[in-house]
Amino acid sequence: MNVIGRQTKPLVSRTEAFNFLKSFIGVTTYTKPHYRNSYDYTDLLQQCTNTNSIKKLHAQIIISGLHQNPFVASKLVAKYVDLSDSAIEDARKVFDELTERDEFVWNVVIQGYANVGPFAEAIKMCNAMRVSGLPPNRYTYPFVLKACGAMRDGKQGKVVHGQIVKAGLELQVFVGNALVALYSKCGEIEVSRRVFEELPEKDLVSWNSMISGYVANGYPNEGVEVFRAMLQDDAACLPEHATLVCVLPACVEASAVEVGHTGMVAKGLEIFEKMEEHGVEKNEKHYACIVDLLGRAGLLDRAVKFIESMPIQAGKDVYGALLGACRIHNNIELAEETAEKLFVLDPENAGRYILLASMYEDAGRWEDAARVRRLIREKNIKKQTGCSSIEVECTYHTFGADDESHPYTDQIFDTLERLDRIMEEAIVMV
Question: What's the pLDDT band for 6 if we cut at 50, 70, 90?
Answer without folding.
Answer: very low
